[in-house]
Amino acid sequence: MTDAVKVFLPYGGRLLECEVPKRNLLTIAKPPFGVPVEDDQRSIRGAIIKAVHEGELSTTLKPTDKVTIAVSDSTRPTPNSKILPILLDELGKLGIRDKNVSVIIATGMHNPDSPEEMKRNVGEEALRRVKVVNHNPDDREHLVGVGRTELGTEIEVNKLFADANVRVTTGTIGPCMLVGWSGGGKTVIPGVSSRRSIDQNHRLFVRNVRKAKRGAMFGLIEGNWVRRDIDDYAQRAGVNLIVNTVQNAKEEILGVYAGDLLEAYGRTLAHAKKAMTAPVSEKADVVVVSPGVYSHEVSLYQSGSRMFASVEGIVERGGTIILVSSCYKGIYEGIEKEEFKRALLQYRDPEEVLELTEKGKILSFESCISYQFVWMMKNFTTIVVTDGMSKKELEEIGMEHAPTISKALETSLSRHGRDTTVTVVPYADITYTVL
Known about the structure:
Blueprint: E1 4-11, E2 14-21, E3 25-28, H1 40-54, H2 57-60, E4 67-72, H3 80-93, E5 101-106, H4 115-122, H5 124-129, E6 131-134, E7 143-148, E8 154-158, H6 159-162, E9 166-172, E10 175-176, E11 180-181, H7 195-202, H8 205-212, H9 225-236, E12 241-247, E13 253-259, H10 261-276, E14 277-279, E15 284-289, H11 300-311, E16 315-324, H12 337-346, H13 350-358, H14 364-379, E17 381-385, H15 391-396, E18 400-402, H16 405-416, E19 422-425, E20 432-434
Parallel strand pairs: 3-19, 4-5, 4-9, 5-6, 9-12, 14-20, 15-16, 15-19, 16-17, 17-18
Antiparallel strand pairs: 1-2, 7-8, 10-11, 12-13
Helix pairs in contact: 1-3, 3-4, 11-14, 12-14, 13-14
């Protein structure tokens, strides 16, 4: 194509190329990210040493204490395999033996990590040294209630987590369609909480989107009731220490923060906002968007919800969103796959989804994403470039399929006309687009 700009979007662990006519291209929205740390191990160790040996744990920890570490699951890019050995070593210097440490994979409502996923996630050293288990939100025998939040959510967490003397969480931070920004207490809820607790917490999204008149709360912390409830929940569950990271599109570490739940999270959030904010001058008719993080390409549920959320404020109503994602596990990777699919097939009115959620007729962890998809499909045309789902599957739920980005772009330019404006967002999961 003459007089065109070559654009590259991450897809399935590689880069796909497409050409956008120069006259149509509005902007390629990329965050600054900044420079990765020089030495991952040194940065992680430095943050953990400061938090463990200079904080409250240095004076309160006893050699007989039981420690439970809740880590994000394999659908998140947290560098747990680097964090855990260092954390175990530094706890050991305070007298905590490996036999007194347990690690819980904070699955929330996702499927449990397979043995291979667990090995990649936590690393062989952690598997060799300590007990590692998947959380199960429906296993009532291994869940325990420890009160309620200020907003009324029942606090039911994994017994291994609740019964520990010291509770640690890991996580990585980026813009999130539900809680504004991920990380912090999110490893506790939904991570190691019961289905009932997750439902009660996520139901607060109705209050959020009605007030904001949006499809999602991407990047919005202020006035976010779900985030407020999560912070309160995690504090009441007794989190003693968090280790959170900020990463770029290559999953290189930009910063490591450890310490008190809210204080350390605040420092992580400040860094993430600076690293991931990408200003956009005006709304476009067409947005071409990819998650940019391979683990988030796992399904249409994960990649679609994140991509939709990141671009809803920068595309004109009635415009087109081209989603570029391998969706390597299809429509949804979690234990509620059929429920999610049924919701997309059944509902076409976002307000109906909200009303049924309020009445408890739809579980909120299904409806918060279903609402977002329904809201987006009502306001925009959606074309998905993927090998992970068929044309029939996508059309069934109200989306279009394209074999290549070029074909999707050609179709979109034809529909919107010669003066169509196009914005490209290659790393949507970690790009906070601001109009």
